[in-house]
Structure formats: C-alpha cells, structure tokens
C-alpha cells in the first residue's frame, strides 16, 4: 500500500478512535457521577454501576488503540512533538 493510502487509513482510524475516546470520557464522568448519587440514595450495586464500568472499559480500550496507532503510524508532520 502506498504511503498516501496508509496515511489516509491512519487518519480515518485515528478520527474514529478519538471520537470514541471523547464520547467515552464524557460518558464515564457522567455515569460515575450518577452512579455515586444513586449509590448514596439506594445501593452500590445499582444499574448505573454497569454503565459506568462499560464506559470506563470503552475509554481504556480506545486509549490503548490510539496509543497503538500512534506507535505503529507516527506523525510525520513538522509539529512540536518532533
């Protein structure tokens, strides 16, 4: 595959992974806060716990995928990171 094709695929994959990371970060914060409120009012094992665990797991997986993409296909632009 050509360099341009790889860069295009990396850009698409990185965009999808970063979008998932953004949504998972917002969902993790929101569901953990709701779970804490529900835990104080009712029980620790309320249904919001599983939403919080799922969103945190999604955040961890998407973070791992993004770091894997960054190592496998590093940026070649002239930015501050080089």
Explain how this protein is built:
With 82 residues, the protein is an all-alpha fold. The protein has one domain. 79% of the residues lie in helices and 0% in strands. The protein contains two helices and no strands. It is rod-shaped and about 55 Å long. The relative contact order is 0.13. The model has no long low-confidence stretch (mean pLDDT 88).
Short description:
9% of the residues are buried. Helix content is 79%, strand content 0%. It is rod-shaped.
Furnish the topology, listing elements before pairings.
Blueprint: H1 3-41, H2 47-72
Helix pairs in contact: 1-2
Give a quick set of tags describing it.
mainly alpha; rod-shaped; single chain; Bacteriorhodopsin; transmembrane helix; 82 residues
